[in-house]
Structures are given as C-alpha cells and as structure tokens.
Write a structure and sequence with these properties.
By secondary structure, this protein is α/β, with parallel strands linked by helices. The chain is built from 28 helices and 31 strands. It has an eight-stranded mixed sheet, with helices on both faces. It has a seven-stranded mixed sheet with strand order 22-21-20-19-23-24-25, with helices on both faces. A six-stranded antiparallel sheet has the order 14-15-13-16-18-17. The protein is elongated. The two termini are about 65 Å apart. It binds adenosine-5'-diphosphate (ADP), aspartic acid (ASP) and magnesium ion. Adenosine-5'-diphosphate binds next to strand 13.
Length: about 800
Amino acid sequence: MQVLKFGGTSLLDAENILKASDIIAKAVERDRTIVVASAIGGCTDSLIEVGNMAAAHDGSFSDILDKIRARHHKIIRSLLPIEKHEESLEACDKVMDSIKGIAQGVYLLGELSTTSLDAIQGCGELLSSQILATKMASIGIPTKWVDSREIIRTRSDGTHNVVDTETTYANITAMIENNPIKSLFIVPGFIASDEKGRMVTLGRGGSDYSASLYAVGSKARNLETWKDVPGMMTADPKIVPEASLIEHISYRAALELSHFGAKVIFPPTIQPVVSERIPILVKCTFDPDGPGTVIEQNPPRGKNRSKIIGISNSDKIALLSLEGSGMVGVPGFSYRLFQTLSENDISIILITQASSVNTMCVAVAESDAEKAREAADKCFAYEISLGKLNPLKVETGFSIVCLVGDDIINQRGTMGRMLAALGDRSIGVRAVAQGSSERNISVIISSDDVRPAIKYIHAEFFEKSPYKDINLFIAGYGTVGRALLDIIARKRGEIAERTGKRIHVAGLSNSRKFILDREGLSLDDIDRQLASGHPAANEAFFEALSKTSLQNSVFVDCTGSSDISYKYLNLFEKGYSVVASNKITFAAPYSQYKALKTAAVENGVSLKYETTVGAALPILESISRSVNSGDTILKVDAVLSGTMNFIFSSYAGGSDGRTFAEVVRTAQEKGYSEPDPRLDLSGRDVLRKLLILAREAGVPLDEADVKITPALGDEFFKGKVPEFFEKLAAAEPEFAASYKAAADKGLRQRFLASLVRNGDGTYTAKMGLQEVGPGNPLYNLSGTDNCAIITTEFYPSPLVVQGAGAGAYQTASGVLNDILI
Ligand code: ADP
Ligand code: ASP
Ligand code: MG
C-alpha cells in the first residue's frame, strides 16, 4: 500500500488535476493506493471568507459561493467525460447547497461557531476528492471514494479535539479489507468527524495530517506528498529562486523547518509516520520524474552534505515584553507569565531574556497577542498597581527567521555568520534565540525585512558565489558619472568574469534627487528613475547612506563639490570606502588631507583618487607603489594640464600664421579649456594636482610651499573674457619672442609641474613654463596629453607615464579601476 497526497496547487484547475491523475494512474500500476486530496487551490480560503462574511451580516458571501461553484463546474466540464457531467454537477451542487444553508444560518445568527466554520471550510475537500474519484474511475481504474468523516474520528481530550488514532486506524484497516478488489481509494483530506458525528477539520494544512494517518493506518510503504515545488528546498523558492533541493532530510530536521514556516510539511503530519518509520516523499506534480525529497529517519550522509539544512520563516509574530523594577531578584515572574499564557491556550513560540533581569520577552502568534495582554495584565494586576511592573508591552509586525541544521549549535561561527549576513545589510535583529533545540537559530526581525533577510542568509550559507559583490553609491551624475554608469551597464558581466567582482549600483544622486535600492538599481532608464527619486536636499542622500550600510560599499564622488570631505569621514565610520574623481578634497590644506587618510586607515576602508591627477593614467599609483616598496622619489616632472599642453604645443610662435590668442581661442572653442580659459592658464588646476602628486610621494606639501611662475602676468587676469583676448592679441610679440628664444636653442616651451628631492632629503616643488630639449619625453608631447616622468632611486632611468589626461570615459574608467582594486 502507498499513500499519495495532492495539495491545493496540484489540484488548481482541470489541467493540473489531469497531471495528478496521470501520476495516480502510474502509481496504481506499482501498488494499491490511497489518494488524499486537498481542496482545489484557494478554495479553503474562500470558504473561510464565506463564513466570516456571513457572520458579519455581509450577504455577498453568496457571490463567493457562486464563484466556488463555477470553478468546480468548469473543472467537471473540462476534465470528466460528458456522460459523467450531470451526476457530478449534481453532487457538486448538493455540497454547495449545504454550505449555503449553513452560511445562511450563520448570517441569521451573526455568529460563526467552530462547528459552523468547520462545516463550511471542510467542504472544499469533499468537492475535489469526488471529482478526482470520478476521473480515475472513468479511465478504468477500480476506484472507491471514501468519506474521511467516516474514517478519521476525533475525541475531546478535555480542551481540544484530538484524533482518536486507535479508532481511525481500525477504520482504515476495515476500509481496505472490505474492498479487496479496489486498487485505488480516493479520500478527502483535512476533514474528520467528532464523537457526535459532526464534521471537524484537522487545522489549516491538515490534509497532510490526514495523509499521514492513512499511511500509518494502511501500513503503507511510503507517503508521497505532491506539491508545486520540486521538494523541500533550502528556502522557500518563491522568496529565494536560488534555493536548492534537499534530497534527503531527517524527520527531525524537516519538522524543525516546517515548524518555523516551511509549509512543505504540516508539522503534525510527521508524528504518526515517524513512529512507524514510513518515509515521506515530497514530489513535484509538474515534474513527476524529478528526484523530490525523501524525509526519513536516517538520511544517507552525502560526502559534502552541509550540516546547515535550510531557512524558514514564520510571520505574524507578536513580541510580549514584561518589564519593571519589581522583577529584579524576585523569582517566579516568568513562571507566572508562562502559566497564565498556557492557561489561556496561548503557545509561546520563542523566549528571550535580556541579561538585565528586569525584562523578559516572549514571542507568540499575533492572533494571540490581545488575549495575552489581557491575561498578563490580570495576572500581574497587583504588581502593576504598585508600579513594580509595567503593563505587558505588546508589539506586532515581527517575523521569525530561522536557520535549521544538524548539530548547528556546535558548529563554530554559525550564529556570527547569520547575524553578520543581516547586520552587514542593515537589517536590525530584535531578538535572537539559540538553544531551544540544537537544530535551529532563530532571529526576530521586522516583517518588512523578511524577504531580504532570507535571501542574505541563504546567500551566506548556500550560495557559494565565486563573486564578491561590490555596492556602489555614486554622487554626481554629470559627464563622469554618466560615463561610469554607461560602462558598468555595458561591461559588468565581463568585469565580473575577469575580476570576480560583481558591481551593483545601489545608490545614485545628483544635486537635486537621489535613488537608492539595497538590491541594486536597474541601470535602464536612469534619468527617469532619478527624476522621480527622493529630493537630495539637505544631505538627504548622505543621511540615507548612513542608514544603508551594505557589505563592500563604495561611495563614489564624481561631483566637483568642495564641501564633501567631511562627509567622507562619516562614510568611513559607516564602513564605506571612497573613490573620488573630485580633486578639491585632496588639495585642501595638508592637515585636512592627512586627517582623511588617517581616518580611512583607522576605519579599515580604502580611499582612492587616481583620477584626480591625469585621469586614468597611473601617475599616483606609480608614485605610491615606489614609495610603498621602499624606493625614494628623486624627481617628478609632469605636464598635468591638457589645456595648457594643447596651447603650448600648438603655438608655433606665429610661424603657421596663428597667434597665441588664436590658439587659446581654439582651445576654448574645442572645449579643451574652461569657458574662461584663464581658469586653466592661471595654473590653479595644475597646482592642485601637484599638491596631490607630492602628497602621494609622502611630501606634506601645501600651496605656500610651491614656487609658481604663472604663464601669464597679473594684468591678463583683470577684466572680462573678450578683454582678455584683446590683451592676448596685443601681447603677441612677447609670446612670439619667448617662443623664438626657445626655438633658437632647439627647445620647446611646456607648462611643467615638478617635484625635486634636494640633497638634504627635502623637496622643492615648482610650476611654470620651462624649455625642454629633444631628449626630454615632454618635447614631443602634443595635443591634450598629460605626462609624468618619474625618477626614483631604484629607477634612475625614469618611468614615463603618458596619455590622455582628461575626458569623461577616461576618467570613468580610472574611477572604475579604483573601485576594483
Ligand atoms: P500544498 O499545495 O501541498 O498545500 P503548500 O502551499 O501548503 O502546499 O506548501 C507548499 C509551498 O510551501 C510552496 O509552494 C512553497 O512556496 C512553500 N515553501 C516554504 N518553504 C519551503 C521550502 N523550504 N521548500 C519548499 N517549499 C517551501
Ligand atoms: N485545504 C486545507 C487548507 O488549505 C487543507 C490542506 O490543503 O492541507 O488548509
Ligand atoms: Mg498545504
């Protein structure tokens, strides 16, 4: 004998029932079979609604009944052969009419007793099992439909209805013996009858329990329960698509998982089959050949089988806290609380007690919370009136998430990993319980966090990803920010393959709006997303970031903002690394720069800003590598302004017919310079870069330490831009003369920043126009290129880094490199 149970989703509609009937037909070829049917998917919920509406004097319960009737009629018409239609429709209507009769009674009385509710909610199984039996008989299988109310009997144990197993098993044996020629029995799950012969139910999900009773009563070889999932999984696949199948699991572990919410097995189910050691197979109706899960006493131990088995959750949890100074040192409070809860039939799901003895906290089902409040406040009325205890504090909206495994307590670090998986993603844990059994660690969290919490814990224990996830929070959506997002959107797959680092953009802000998503923003249509984002005013983005710490978080500063560096400090404290293309911070007074560097080290995060000098050219990196590896920088000569280089390498002293003013105009028109070219020609930008470069070499340089020879005299910096161009034109003879003086010596003019080590170990920094000869790499430097010539003690023949020193994509790629280091 074998027992097969089909859940509601497996019997959702004619199509699914047809799949189930194929499975049953094959099973019957192997052995005599009892099939336990649930109601068709959603039917029990609808029937309960009918009961509640009727009790609330809401006459539209009959609309719902009509819908239930229509669903069954439709199934009958499309599943059964035509000659069975009339009889089946009639049988269906008979059940529906009886429900309607009861519901009308409830409507008149305005009260829904347990008896009436059971009489209504249990009917879904009557309907589905009758249809299924007719279907199986119609394909030629000797089938008998048996009413479970005549088989499964309950009795009262004083307070509750419990299954009278002795009578039930005897009834099952009789059912089989009295029908020797039947190879298939089809019975409704969920329902039974009490001592008075009234219909009762076995509780939500109770068809599993029915199946288990039939399995024990018929001494079945095994119990198959057919579901819409491949079997018991490491987590609910509806929450974690990556969940994997558990092929073998012990009764105890399965019970533990189910107890805390994995709906696969209704916990009482297991009890009867465990005592008889009947294995339970969880199978998938939509993939009948899949392996499914075997739940048994001693599952085989696979070679690499993890001791961590799965994660589950139960929702609608209330926390009850008993607090007050009167508890300190006085024994008996917990006993009294537990006793009063137990007397009121409230089961405690979990207990935690803070180390401070004046509070204790228990978790119960939300539906019991008010009852618990009344009971506790009554029980402790005296202490409350004296002010020694506070009235019971009741908080709702919690869920329990639990990690189940064998011998989990003795596996070092499990609890830490579980809490870190949540903490690293800012999921607050309200209470933790370990030790209630050796098999689970439970945390209580806000119900809003359940889905991400389960995903993170699952990823920590079950998804050995070869990738490290990097979460970016980008400030600045100008040319660099856009280019960065564009590169990430197009190349992140490749980047992950090459570097093992998976980039997620978790936040983005421009000066007006910001968007944030812990799971990673979709990179399509960023402009639209940003436009409908949160207002970024008043540092809202930074405030949100400080509440959103994720693992491997990097704040990316692509702004040009000058007041951002103190924000870096906050971000470091929250665990963010910083990558910046914004140079202002790093050229601030040395003390500020130094404080920032120190804070990054103290917080164990990194601070990178390669693109502040020469865009993606590895200038800073080359310098810091030398210094970090014990080398000494002797000299750096660098052209650090693409604009300046364009101007000085294009100008030919007028020999090609272009004046200096015209060359500057071209730079302006091509967008190589700022709209006011004097911002470039002032050398301010070069000065900042020189400071950063020198500091990278370990030289604590400040602005005042740099000897600056400006490219243009003071008079050029007065007045508006057009006036400036006039002055330039007027000064052409001087530019031409200075050009010629160099050219006559075979030299060229370049705007150079240099850092030179003196004999006493100090450094001299200067910037200004210099003449360079053909032996110097800068002699042939053309266009907007940058170049740094780095001479060190170990490399007297210098390292030359040359290439584009600006550009949105160049800078963005440099930023990305910093992110990936
Ligand atoms: P039935 O249709 O047999 O009544 P249920 O709907 O009661 O089945 O339970 C099956 C559901 O349980 C699945 O659809 C799945 O979403 C959920 N579930 C929760 N936890 C797990 C888990 N660990 N493994 C598989 N399914 C799970
Ligand atoms: N139909 C009942 C319910 O939904 C019993 C079951 O399916 O197990 O709870
Ligand atoms: Mg179920």
